[in-house]
Amino acid sequence: MRRIAGPCYSGFVRTSTLAPAKVNLVLRVGNLRHDGFHEVSSLMVPLDLADRVDVRVGARPGPVTCRVPGRPELDGPGNLAARAAEGFRDRFAVDRAITIRIDKKVPVTAGLGGGSSDAAAVLRCLTRAFRVRDARAVAEIALSVGSDVPFFLGPGPAWAGGRGETLRPARVPPLHLVLLFPEDPTLAIRASEAYRWLDASRNGPSAPLPRPRRFATTLLGNDLEPPCLAERPVLSRFLRRLQSAGAAAVMMSGSGPTVFGVFENRRAARKAARGLAKEVGRAVRVITARTASRQPGVTSWRSPRSASSPSTRRS
Q: Is residue 223 annotated as part of the catalytic site, yes or no?
């Protein structure tokens, strides 16, 4: 445990940032490791679809609280964002009260990394507020919360290895996507379920994982997709609808159940989304999104007691 100083002034600190969703353009899954996780080779890319995360650090000791307006089932200590804050406090001996508010835009349990991104957003905000420069320690906290969290601490698209913590920057051209997320809770897929179905479908050890250096559309693919489609056949119908709407490529993101199609440009994606929305009805959320080349930054903190103080200006 490393003790650090509190914020640079006596009032409370408020920071804010966006927490983007992601898609896996490539997800190859290797064998089960001794720690219970699978070895992966994945290309993850952030999207312009994002939650907004506000973090307030109190001037006095207190608990971590987390609220998601409109989604009370996500409130409280079980939220990955709250777990990230607790991990930060434990690692750096912080006792200040921390209040987290998440304006949720990314679908939940969708294979889009929304919860992991919220957790990373909280870590980025707290790192800024407390001026922590120990990136390795923060990355360790992130990994303890979830395998995808370290990716959202990085600068942008990345190849991920190990269980997801070994990251190499990737260059991915802007892609215009249409995502279909079924709202029916009976179609939800937990990551643990998807990996279990994959293991059950395999005969013997998996082939060695590829380690590509550059992105190409020929690499698109998700090893979790076939077993998930076998368990959730309706997802195959959504993939076919995306193809019929003109998608150049279609696949499932992460552990699903969100599926997406890649379109030639924004106009084509929006046109396809309008048609698909009429076809699939209200039970399926239709989202247009664009891949991003950078993760969003954290806003400069501001103190109601000293909005123009020298320390605020320097930040």
A: no
Q: Which position among 22, 54, 104, 223 bears the catalytic label?
A: 22
* Model confidence, pTM: 0.90
Residue 215: Cβ within 10 Å count: 19
Active site residue: 51, 118, 148, 223, which one?
148
Question: Average pLDDT, stretch 110-134?
Answer: 95
Structure token digits, residue 287: 């989202």
Closest to 169 in 3D by CA, of 118, 213, 119, 136: 213
Q: How far apart are CA 34 and CA 201, in angstroms?
A: 20
From-to residues of CATH 3.30.230.10 in the chain: 13-171
| Average pLDDT score over residue span 173-197 | 95
Domain 176-290 has CATH 3.30.70.890: yes
Location of each CATH 3.30.70.890 domain in the chain? 176-290
What is the third-level CATH fold of 13-171? Ribosomal Protein S5; domain 2 (3.30.230)
Q: Is 134 one of the catalytic residues?
A: no
